[in-house]
Amino acid sequence: MAVAEYRLFRQAVTIRQDDYQNLTIKTAESLRLTMNEIQRLSYMLMINTDVQAFIMQDKIESGSSDIQTIIDAQRQLSYIKSVHPAIDSLYLYSKKSDYLLEADNAFFNIDAMYTIFFKFRGLNSGQWRAQYLQPVHVNTWMPEISVFSKRIEKNLLVFEQTFPLQNSAANAGKLIILLKTDYFAPLFSSLLSSQKASVWLTDSH
Predict the structure, then answer these.
(1) Strands 118-120 and 152-163, how do they pair?
(2) Residues paired with residue 154 on neighbouring β-strands, in sequence order
(3) Contact status, residue 11 vs residue 3, Cβ threshold 8 Å
(4) How far apart are CA 175 and CA 51, in angstroms?
(5) Mutual orientation of helices 67-83 and 49-56 as an angle, nearest 10°?
(6) What is the DSSP letter of 59?
(7) DSSP H or E run through 2
(8) 46: alpha, beta or left? (left if phi > 0; alpha if psi -120 to 50)
(9) Number of alpha carbons in the 13 Å side-chain half-sphere of residue 110
(10) 178 neighbors 88 (Cβ within 8 angstroms)
(11) Which 3 state secondary structure label does DSSP give 118?
(12) Are 115 and 135 in contact (CB under 8 A)?
């Protein structure tokens, strides 16, 4: 290869590298923006008085007016679910009552209702509790997992936050946000020009 041809080749390679680097930076910025949005919505729920009342509430007697606490917290979950297109569903767990609340359902016996209303692939109720409810998770982005919900199987990303914000070690409850993987896919599509390329979304842990 002549010197002039080599220089042209190197110049073309450098331009391609610069273009791909810029594309990667833009993708990272878009992804960071989305992740920050989810964390801000999580924070809004964490400080909401209706949500906090549910977390700190004891078990509710049949016919008790305390059921309103669940209705109020559920309304907050429904609102947050409606404001961001990446959110598939949200779960709110109270360690004190052992209730699990979703935007459309309230689970008063998690172990009995787990396989009927929702299920994480490969995990029974006890394993799901051990992985998602018992550990302390602070702004944690967990791996994609297949979830059965409303008779539909979906691949979803998991974001978790432990209550309360000021002392997560108290481990009083959990906020679990399930996110649509197909919302994130377009962010990476321009990077995957090779069939051998892959993208992993993970946090610093």
Answers:
(1) unpaired
(2) 147
(3) no
(4) 10
(5) 130
(6) P
(7) none
(8) alpha
(9) 21
(10) yes
(11) strand
(12) no
Site of tokens 């598939």: 88
pLDDT in tens, 40-99: 999 999 999 999 999 999 999 988 999 999 999 999 999 999 999 999 999 999 999 999
Q: Which residue has the tokens 């992740």?
A: 35
Amino acid (one-letter) located at 129: R
**How many helices and strands in the chain, by DSSP H and E?**
6, 7
Q: What tokens appear for 180 in the block? A: 């649509």
pTM: 0.81
Chain segment 102-126, per-residue pLDDT in tens: 998 999 999 999 999 999 999 999 9
d(CA 24, CA 187): 10
Give per-residue pLDDT as tens, 149-196: 888 999 999 999 999 989 999 999 999 999 998 887 776 665 555 455
* 164: nearest Cα among 138, 141, 140, 142: 138
